[in-house]
Amino acid sequence: MERVVGTIARGLRCPIINKGDRIEDIVVDSVLKAAEVEGFTIQNKDIVTVTESVVARAQGNYATIDHIAKDVQAKFGDDTIGVIFPILSRNRFAVCLSGIAKGAKKIVLMLSYPSDEVGNHLVDLDTLDEKGINPWTDVLTEKQFREHFGYNKHTFTGVDYIDYYKSLVEEYGVECEVIFSNHPKTILEYTKSVLCCDIHSRDRTKRILRANGGEKIYSLDNILSESIDGSGFNEAYGLLGSNKATEDSVKLFPRNCQPVVDNIQEILKEKTGKTVEVMVYGDGAFKDPVGKIWELADPVVSPAYTAGLEGTPNEIKLKYLADNQFADLKGEELKKAISKYIDEKEDDLVGAMEAQGTTPRRLTDLIGSLSDLTSGSGDKGTPIVFIQGYFDNYTK
């Protein structure tokens, strides 16, 4: 029978994961149970993806405001701390900021504008134009910002993040001065001790600060990069990728994930005889067209994956072939011609015209985005995603 379905992504329900649970066994059992109940057959090159959240929960990788504060105090002492370029998020940064404030004497909070790194806007671009403000050259105080733009609440959360972040700092009796600039060097006019809170541009930010007289320069991946009084930690990412757990604690990005994916692959091989690829995923790498938010607030889409997920797709554009090489063909003749072309395609199509318009992104970023959109971040209860047919093409 002719195959009529391509890629399938299934969100799999599993038990609530708690500290100490063996995540590998839960994932494997959930996949096997789903296959039995839903009646699908596990095949070679199928993909199992597991959200980072449940891996971190199983690891018990948590830390409190006090743990954050102690690490910040150890690194900065009594210096005024420049906290620069944080993202605007109650889930991602609010608890971290509380911990930073508890370990500080004074904070100068420097926000990028019109939006943060991942697209949360403080003000829209049209308003900047109307006011004649150039975000690449103009540095604003809080008073100047309010005079120009007033009080604005986030489109989705209804939060005025300027007031909110300032209140979190002042809750600990810490003075907080807010400024707005997109230039890292601006903060050096206020302090030489800086905590860079940007995610994907952090290395550049630190390099600029150190080259221009910065003295104590750290980024979020340097905070809780080792355990503080028995806390969780992440040696590679520190606080990056953390999420709010409670009002005074965060769940950190999972650590040491490679053995997890390798073990899941090995157990599935033992139980099914099939080689299934496995990855741990966090945020997908996509942008919301309405809210203008770029989803990737984690340091990477995937902290660990099996070898078969390395690389980028090597695909050709079917409609390009149909409109060009085989424009005079139709029906079964066209199908056979395109199938033959796919079977004989080169191993590396970079730069080839027939590959234009395909997605030049890493497999893990594409599959992570698919998984994140499938599982969601709310109450679906499907932290495992089982994907079939992803590597198949028109001929298979």
UniProtKB/TrEMBL annotation:
Keywords: Ligase
Identification of the protein by name: F420-0--gamma-glutamyl ligase
Molecular function via GO: ligase activity
Sequence ranges assigned to domain Coenzyme F420:L-glutamate ligase-like in this UniProt record: 11-389
Cross-referenced Pfam families: F420_ligase
Membrane-traversing stretches: none
Record flagged with keyword Ligase: yes
